[in-house]
Design goal:
The complex is a heterotrimer of chains A (525), B (125) and C (456). Chain A has helices at residues 36-39, 75-86, 109-115, 118-121, 133-150, 162-179, 198-205, 223-229, 252-261, 294-297, 356-392, 423-432, 460-478, 483-486, 499-504, 516-524, and strands at 154-156, 188-192, 209-213, 234-240, 265-269, 289-291, 312-314, 326-330, 333-337, 409-411, 439-440, 450-452. Chain A is α/β, with parallel strands linked by helices and 525 residues long. Chain B has 125 residues and is α+β, with helices and mostly antiparallel strands. The A-B interface holds A 2-10, 441, 499-500, 502-504 and B 31-34, 36-37, 58-64, 84-85.
């Protein structure tokens, strides 16, 4: 079940619109920026550090003898370097970011301020528990909100991201099966073909064999397909709900019952929980474990690829096996259980207590929304996605007909067939229109997939303009204006990049160029 | 005179006596896109028919290459290490993967000939 | 009409939600749905909640700030007291510009750089980060970060198993006990074996005796959890003689400014915690795992990697590359299940490291070491037993009685004086050991306060 659907990764040559060349390479506000290794100097530093004075080192014979090769920049140079770099990035704060399954919603700045309160940001995970009672109170409060919203009995807070949460949930399942004496017998985890790649990767990481479940024509998983794959060797089903096609699994309750009847556990990938918070409690559907991506559903910033946070809610059956550390409340006092002795805990996921910085942000988001606002946010996310789905359905093709979606609308590339434009081209043309492309080529079960998730953070005016822009692009496709697509983007900081070259001869770090004389000599030889 | 046979997974096998050359078809390389890496088996390794013998990677995809018939690896195309693009440029020629000593010639009978494979491709979209 | 009913409707206005009740009505009409629940038709009717969850209603920014500030004020922050707590996370001064830059919208509110044309900022930063990490550790290649040092350590063990096709890890007794727990928890699941050496504050363990043909990797931390510096060279040589790999771990990255890097001593994989540079304590996370290895093991390395290339006009640019190792393509055969990593923490690390440069980092490391030496000397002079021969900015002392109780007593006096070894290693006979870290933030007054508290 590998991803074997390729796509062009080498740009084709299409002339750019004529732009006058500049001496510096800059184009007004669009600045070219060298690497720090090309502009920094070893003797320059942007931090004043006191001189250590005279003392007798205690390093044994292990003092560094080699140069580090780290150039420095002064503070003004540093500011300029990173501000210039930042201006080459798209961001939620710049425009609609419809990356399906990634949930690019607004990141409130109150959350940033709260995470930086010294009482949260400047406390050490190993300082005495008596000096961090407020921190434990925050984690405990967040945990109680998560269990209330999901209907769970317990939540493991320490996992550091969604995939880490998946691993945590699957480890709890494995520990529960071991405790039942069925650890050796149950070796297989069922994973639908439409699943995010982390699901099979996680199952394999924990030592399970993966058995794929085919998707139905309508993009959902049938109870019959699950039943057919179940057996005494099956440990768990990993199912995403709402699924990666943006659909709520209509047979999820029956599927859960079938899984339980076969003695297996039901792991739910909660990546799309944001569609149903306050509307459905996953544990009511029969889920045993589900991770929650705080960086998706509860607005903690994505930060260019993390950090995330992936607490895992657990059913009664799995709760005893949760990893350390966890919090116990003893009257008004919180204590931390940091070791497995005397518990059934399967062990430890990470050095400390989890992503506290993300916990504070998520708590701030939850308190701001309240139970009522969280439900409204889910409804708005679903409303926005369906509005886009309906408004584009006459020009683009949807793989599963016109039934309602959840928080994301899925299209395929049938409507592009024989137009000379691919999903990739279409996505790159969106960049020129000022949009981040939607998720492409995922889920794998849909050919040339385009998965659009607007989130609740968009106004109707913003969504209307987005729809008009996509319709305009679609009309361009129909009219055969392929050059608008094949060379796109034309106006981004970079044109299409040669990913083939990057992979065939990887350059993964900067290295000092050879001095010119030496280079000439090499060339001469 | 060599015989060429094809599998439904788009491997080809060109048999010459008891040694056969295995690679992926032009259709397969086009589906994958620019090939950037090929993971080849060790010399002397034996495979049963249908076992994974190699992995071919493009930038955004990876595909397993299965042994079309049972056999032992007698040579691998080490040129692919430095020039994976050969798979795209000449999949039927310089882009071959492994040479197998065929264990059971009768297994070839279950594979498609050129015409059957061409018909098979027409059924795919 | 709707305005008149606004109290009756369940729709609310909230500062983060731009849709108005009229918008919602218009959009539902366009969709052809009678009400919002028509869009939730696939949810079994008896499972659809009829009312919001039983949680408090939405709050203004001011109210939220008041509530959370109250919780925060119940904690003793590191900057408010003489502070000597380490054991895997360290209090350092982070320049103001770092925190400003990482809060720029284009860094904070962007996703993983899947669309390189509009993500060059993040990608170039990652390429610079990878270079910094490789140079610091003395290794050939580094990835774009892991969640933290401990999860990186778990991944490193799995990577070694893949490379060596063996399934036994030997853990030094100086490895941070939580890191060891992460490795053991994972190994227990996969059925891989782990040999754990007993904790030993004097670092006198005989690791070489453990290395044989069945060992995949030896995991050694330096400075170790008790603060001792370890010479990795003989261990690396012994590993290589038996076809095993040496995984070198550090929890204090500042040490690399003054101590010989693991790469120069023969390590095959280097993993560590990068929190000290650019990142605050934040009660344990988010932090940033650093991960570096040799070029020949590149394809077995987990995590994202940025690589250099050119665009259609021949201009230099960067992309995420070698993704076929990763879960979104290789699925159950991926090198790891990691997806999101620690992008923003890696940015903070990289900015701080750029500000320091070689000169600044060396000075900072020297100052840390000097402060720790001064403290150790003062404690020795006061009659406290310092266990370590060698250390960087953290060492272990033997106290009279129970170190955990002592730490509580010191906390009551307003001194956060270290980590009792028994908190990390219960039932290991280390109740009288206290692990003390001293960084550039400690003043002479801080040291005097600790010495006084420990003398009592």
């Amino acid at each position: 079940m590998l991803n074997n659907q390729g796509r062009p990764t080498q740009p084709v040559e299409v002339a750019a619109p004529h732009v006058r060349k500049t001496f510096t390479g800059h184009r007004a506000l669009a600045m070219e920026e060298a690497l720090i290794f090309e502009v920094g100097r070893a003797e320059v530093t942007g931090v004043d550090v006191d001189d250590a004075g005279e003392f007798t080192p205690r390093l044994g014979k292990l003092e560094r003898t080699t140069p580090i090769d780290l150039p420095g920049l002064s503070e003004p140079e540093t500011m300029r370097h990173y501000v210039r770099l930042s201006q080459k990035n798209y961001a939620i704060d710049l425009g609609l970011y419809p990356l399906g399954s990634c949930t690019m919603k607004h990141n409130p700045r109150l959350n940033e301020r709260m995470a930086r309160l010294p009482g949260f940001g400047d406390i050490h995970p190993m300082q005495p528990v008596s000096t961090v009672q407020g921190a434990l109170e925050l984690i405990d409060t967040l945990a109680s909100w998560l269990t209330e919203m999901t209907g769970a009995s317990a939540v493991a807070m320490s996992p550091k991201a969604g995939a880490h949460g998946e691993a945590c949930g699957m480890m709890a399942i494995k520990a529960a099966l071991e405790a039942r004496g069925e650890g050796a017998q149950r070796r297989v985890v069922l994973v639908p073909e439409s699943a995010h790649g982390t699901n099979p990767a996680t199952a394999a990481l924990i030592g399970y064999d993966v058995r794929p479940i085919p998707a139905r024509e309508d993009g959902t998983v049938s109870v019959e397909a699950v039943q057919a794959a179940l057996g005494p060797e099956v440990a768990a089903l990993m199912l995403t709900n709402p699924n990666t096609c943006g659909l709520f699994e209509p047979e999820v309750v029956a599927i859960a019952q079938a899984v339980h009847a076969a003695g297996a556990f039901f792991y739910c990938d909660g990546a799309n929980f944001n569609a149903i918070v306050g509307k459905v409690r996953p544990m009511d559907l029969g889920v045993d474990a589900m991770h929650i991506n705080l960086h998706k559903t509860f607005s903690t910033p994505h930060g260019g690829g993390g950090p995330g946070a992936g607490p895992v809610v657990l059913s009664d059956a799995l709760a005893p096996f949760a990893p350390v550390p966890f919090i116990r409340k003893d009257g008004q006092k919180f204590t931390l259980v940091e070791h497995t002795q005397g518990t059934q805990s399967f062990g430890r996921m990470t050095a400390f207590h989890g992503q506290m910085g993300m916990f504070v942000r998520a708590m701030s988001y939850m308190l701001s929304h309240g139970g009522d606002g969280i439900r409204q946010a889910s409804e708005d996310a679903v409303l926005n996605a369906n509005y886009i789905r309906v408004c584009l359905s006459d020009v683009m093709s949807a793989p599963f007909g016109d039934k309602p979606c959840m928080h994301e609308a899925l299209f395929d590339d049938r409507w592009l067939k024989n137009t000379g434009v691919t999903t990739l081209d279409f996505a790159k043309a969106m960049i020129d229109e000022g949009y981040h492309p939607m998720t492409m080529y995922f889920p794998l079960v849909v050919h040339g997939a385009m998965l659009i998730e607007p989130t609740e953070s968009e106004s109707k005016a913003s969504i209307d303009l987005f729809i008009m822009a996509l319709r305009d692009l679609a009309f361009s496709v129909q009219k055969g204006e392929t050059e608008r697509f094949s060379g796109a983007p034309y106006y981004a900081p970079r044109r299409r990049l040669d990913e083939t070259r990057a992979a065939r001869s990887p350059v993964l770090r900067w290295t000092k160029p050879k001095p010119i004389a030496a280079a000439n000599q090499i060339a001469a030889e | 005179m060599s015989t060429v046979r094809y599998t439904k997974d788009h491997e080809y096998i060109r048999v010459d006596g008891d040694v056969a050359i295995v690679g992926i078809t032009d259709y397969a390389q086009a589906q994958l896109g620019d090939v950037v890496f090929v993971e080849l088996p060790a010399m002397g390794k034996s495979f049963k028919k249908g076992e994974q013998a190699a992995v071919v990677e493009s930038v955004k995809a990876a595909s397993e290459v299965y042994a079309p018939v049972s056999g032992e690896v007698v040579e691998v195309n080490s040129e692919l290490e430095g020039a994976p693009a050969l798979v795209n440029e000449d999949s039927a020629g310089k882009g071959w993967f492994v040479k197998l000593r065929v264990a059971d010639q009768s297994e070839l009978g279950a594979l498609m000939d050129e015409a059957a494979y061409a018909d098979y491709l027409k059924t795919l979209d | 009409m709707r305005q008149e009913n606004s109290f009756a409707t369940k729709e609310i206005t909230l500062r983060y939600l731009p849709l108005t009740p009229d918008d919602r009505a218009d959009m539902l009409a366009r969709i052809g749905a009678e009400n919002i629940n028509a869009l939730f038709a696939a949810v079994p009717a008896d499972k659809l909640l009829q009312a919001p969850p039983d949680l408090p209603r939405h709050k203004s920014e001011m109210e939220v700030e008041r509530m959370l500030s109250r919780m925060a004020s119940r904690n003793v922050s590191a900057g408010s007291v003489p502070f000597f707590v380490g054991a895997g996370a360290y209090k350092h001064h982070v320049p103001a510009s770092v925190d400003h830059l990482i809060q720029r919208s284009e860094f904070l509110t962007s996703y993983t750089p899947y669309q390189p044309e509009i993500s060059q900022g993040t990608l170039q930063m990652l390429f610079e980060f990878q270079t910094q990490v490789a140079n610091l550790t003395g290794m050939e290649v580094a990835n774009a970060s892991m969640y933290d040092g401990s999860t990186g350590c778990g991944e490193a063990a799995l990577m070694a198993h893949r490379i060596t096709r063996r399934r036994k890890a030997v853990l030094s007794g100086g490895l941070h006990p939580h890191y060891a727990d992460v490795v053991r928890s994972l190994s227990q699941m996969t059925g891989d074996s782990v040999v754990s050496m007993p904790a030993d504050a004097r670092a006198s363990e005989d690791l070489l005796a453990q290395i044989d043909d069945s060992v995949s990797c030896v995991i050694v931390q330096s400075p170790d959890v008790f603060g001792n510096l370890r010479d990795l060279k003989p261990i690396a040589d012994a590993c290589h003689a038996k076809g095993a790999l040496l995984i070198a771990v550090f929890t204090e990255v500042v040490s690399l400014g003054l101590v010989e890097p693991p790469g120069a001593m023969g390590a095959d994989i280097v993993v560590g915690e990068g929190q000290s540079i650019g990142n605050g304590l934040i009660f344990g996370g988010p932090y940033v795992g650093l991960f570096a290895t040799k070029q020949k093991y590149l394809r077995q390395m987990p995590g994202r990697i940025a690589g250099e290339t050119v665009d259609a006009e021949g201009k230099r640019g960067w992309v995420l590359t070698l993704s076929t190792r990763e879960q979104h393509i290789r699925r159950e055969k991926a090198t790891s299940n990691i997806c999101t990593n620690s992008g923003l923490c890696a940015l903070a690390f990289s900015i701080h490291m750029t500000l320091l440069g070689e000169t600044g980092l060396r000075r900072l490391a020297r100052l840390n070491h000097a402060n720790a030496v001064k403290l150790a000397d003062a404690l020795t002079a006061a009659g406290v037993d310092v266990v370590n021969e060698t250390f960087f900015n953290e060492f272990t002392v033997r106290v009279k009685g129970d170190a955990a109780a002592l730490v509580e007593r010191m906390a009551a006096q307003g001194v956060l004086g270290g980590v009792p070894a028994s908190r990390l290693l219960p039932h290991a006979g280390v109740d009288d050991l206290l692990i003390i870290a001293s960084t550039e933030v400690n003043t002479d007054e801080d040291r005097a306060a600790l010495v006084a508290a420990l003398k009592q």
